[in-house]
Amino acid sequence: MSQKVLLNSKEVTIILHRLACQLIEKHLDFSETILVGIQPRGVFLAERLKQILENEYQVPEISLGYLDITFFRDDFRRTDKPLEANKTQINFIVEDKKVIFIDDVLFTGRSIRSALTAIQSFGRPSEIELLVLIDRRFSRHLPIQPDYRGRQVDAINGEKVIVSWKENDGEDVVHLVTN
Ligand SMILES: O=c1cc[nH]c(=O)[nH]1
């Protein structure tokens, strides 16, 4: 196995600030907007963006929820292993709000397709956007594209993009791993 650094900690910080500014351009004070981190790993990115927006750009408190998609995946019956769901926590009304799905890596688009189904249980948002740190180009199985992307990456099928976060993994870094 070999691994190459795609983004180091400084680059991750710069990208997070850019994404935060792009969100402010569109969502201003976030009064009609809800951030939704896709479980499990989109939550780290969503929390980080909330922190940056509130602490560094003085946006008033932003609504942040977590959405688990385990049982909304179209392949969940195909596994023999018992599936373990993560927490879904959406403590506010999404009806007529602008929802931003946040995930670390966009690959086939199937997770986001599942998230679109899962969010329906909480009402009908006025719109749903997608923000990802890494957009794996040419990998999509579905017509799903991000509205905000940190970095576009060409990775071939045997390769994997791994995003690590300081609070969970000790360091902010993105690796391209080849088996
Ligand atoms: O490369 C990939 C593809 C999907 N999910 C990841 O975390 N990395």
TrEMBL record:
InterPro entries: PRTase-like (IPR029057), PRTase_dom (IPR000836), PyrR_bifunctional (IPR050137). It comes from the Bacteria. GO terms for molecular function: glycosyltransferase activity. Pfam families: Pribosyltran. Coiled coil: none annotated. Keywords: Glycosyltransferase, Transferase. Residues 3-155 form the Phosphoribosyltransferase domain. The keyword Transferase applies. This is Pyrimidine operon attenuation protein / uracil phosphoribosyltransferase. It comes from Flavobacterium defluvii.
